[in-house]
Write a structure and sequence with these properties.
heterodimer, A: alpha+beta, Thiol Ester Dehydrase, Chain A, 6 strands, 35% strand, elongated, B: 148 residues, alpha+beta, 6-stranded antiparallel beta sheet, 3 helices, Acyl dehydratase (chain A)
């Protein structure tokens, strides 16, 4: 368990990377029930003026919180979690690759303490999330009950 | 056709309840690449004080998007699902979701803003158990992009 009194604002909790390929998006579509074809059909995605298939914003949001869940040791301690989806995470399907084991797009995450509330004993973790050198989530913040 | 601005303030009552299954939590956790043992292993979850495996922090999106589907499917809404982009999302958990919960979601249309030729629609799902216990509040904004 994390000792609240040892935490400091600005403290870096760690970094994490998540890779996402087309097979991951099919799996997330099935698990979540979000079958919007922009997340699995390239022709359709391009017809609605997207660069290619893009990851579900909720895939990215769902994947990057693992850094916080594992840091605190209890995923149930995340009492509030929010983000803005600013840039799509494009997931390519290059010729000659197997969509199931292609490394795909790498999402990079860094978590740091954004705020502490001593009375409520909560910590706000601010996540910086980028892919291909661009921030893809903004104001990505998780409040953890300690 | 644009989004119908008269939707603001509309409430879509909870439909059928959602039964949270242990395998669904495991499936969703795997699909979001979550690694905490408490999502997969009942003993690990019990050590943290839960009765059964605990859902990842974004699991409630399943229930929230089912509620949103009522709005999107409503012919009065004017929303073309293929032009919907998720703009922002927030989860406030009153208590963690665990396997065995039976959930209801009431959907509120809180705001509609015109964004250029498109529109941003903000909905809120109030998620409770069938017994009335508050579980989570989710707020989603969807950008409906205009046809060129």
């Amino acid at each position: 368990m994390i000792a609240f009194d040892t935490l400091e604002k600005g403290q870096v909790l760690g970094t994490h990377t998540v890779n996402v390929n087309r097979a991951d998006l099919v799996r997330y579509a099935g698990a979540s029930g979000d079958f919007n074809p922009i997340h699995w059909n390239e022709r359709f995605a391009k017809e609605v003026e997207l660069p290619s298939v893009i990851a579900h914003g909720m895939f990215t949001m769902g994947a990057v919180i693992d850094l916080v869940s594992t840091w605190v040791g209890n995923p149930g301690a995340v009492i509030d979690y929010q983000t803005r989806f600013t840039k799509p995470v494009v997931v390519e399907d290059p010729e000659g690759t197997n969509p199931s084991d292609f490394e795909g797009t790498t999402i990079e995450v860094e978590g740091k303490i954004g705020a502490l509330d001593a009375q409520a004993r909560t910590a706000r973790v601010d996540l910086t999330v980028s892919a291909n050198g661009t921030k893809v989530l903004l104001k990505c913040q998780a409040v953890v009950q300690l | 056709m644009g989004i119908n601005p008269d939707l603001v303030g509309r409430i879509y009552p909870a439909g059928e309840s959602y039964q949270v299954g242990r395998e669904k939590i495991r499936e969703f956790a795997a699909a979001t690449k979550a690694t905490s043992p408490a999502h997969y292993d009942v003993e690990s979850a019990r050590k943290l004080g839960f009765n059964d495996v605990v859902a990842p922090p974004t699991f409630a999106i399943i229930v929230a998007q089912r509620a949103d589907a009522q709005l999107i499917a409503d012919p009065a809404s004017g929303i073309d699902f293929s032009r919907v982009v998720h703009a922002d999302q927030r989860f406030t958990h009153h208590r963690p979701i665990v396997a065995g919960d039976e959930l209801l979601a009431e959907l509120y249309v809180d705001q509609i803003r015109e964004m250029g030729a498109g529109a941003m629609i903000t909905t809120r799902a109030e998620i409770t158990t069938v017994g009335g216990e508050k579980i989570a509040t989710t707020v989603s904004s969807l950008l409906v992009r205009a046809e060129d």
